[in-house]
Amino acid sequence: QVQLVESGGGLVQAGGSLRLSCAASGRIVGINAMNWYRQGPGKQRELVAAITSGGSTNYADSVNGRFTISRDTAKRTVYLQMNSLKPEDTAVYYCNAAMRTMPTMPYQNYWGQGTQVTVSS
Fold first, then answer.
1. Closest Cα partner for 57 from 47, 46, 66, 68?
2. Residue 100 forms beta bridges with which residues?
3. Strand-pair partners of 94
4. Each residue of 64-104: pLDDT tens digit?
5. Is 23 exposed, middle or buried (0-12, 13-18, 19+ CB in 10 A)?
6. C-alpha torsion sign, points 75, 51, 33, 41
7. Integer Cα distance of 120 and 90 in angstroms
8. Which of 2, 17, 30, 82 has the largest CB neighbor count within 10 A?
9. pLDDT at 29 (0 to 100)
10. Spatial separation of the C-alpha atoms in residues 37 and 89, rounded to whole Å
């Protein structure tokens, strides 16, 4: 069974830092883009950061310069380093990845279960 498991969320004061991790497991033969989304209270889910298989990155304007996405291909893990956190960063953070279980199959979209990040003022 292919799955994504996030960890690293928690409660932090404004100005603090957290590092989220998301590990892929199961019979995976390829991982393409890996992304972090978030959904704040009463808000729609939004893309926070993305990283391609080649390492190119993209960030939402609201986190650019504060968050850094990275990945460890060998560990099948994507990270999100979050610095200078603000109360408005409070949300459930979801890992997302395009993965395939056989070389001849197309990449499919997978989601993690989410991890809560709460930033107090």
1. 68
2. 30
3. 37
4. 999 999 999 999 999 999 999 999 999 999 999 999 999 99
5. middle
6. positive
7. 8
8. 82
9. 95
10. 11
Angstrom distances, CA of residue 107 to CA of 21, 67, 69, 110: 21, 27, 21, 9
| Residue that is written with structure tokens 């190119």 in the block | 56
Q: Which residue has the tokens 């995976």?
A: 28
State pLDDT tens for residues 30-71: 999 999 999 999 999 999 999 999 999 999 999 999 999 999
Residue pair 18/82 in contact by the 8 Å Cβ criterion: yes
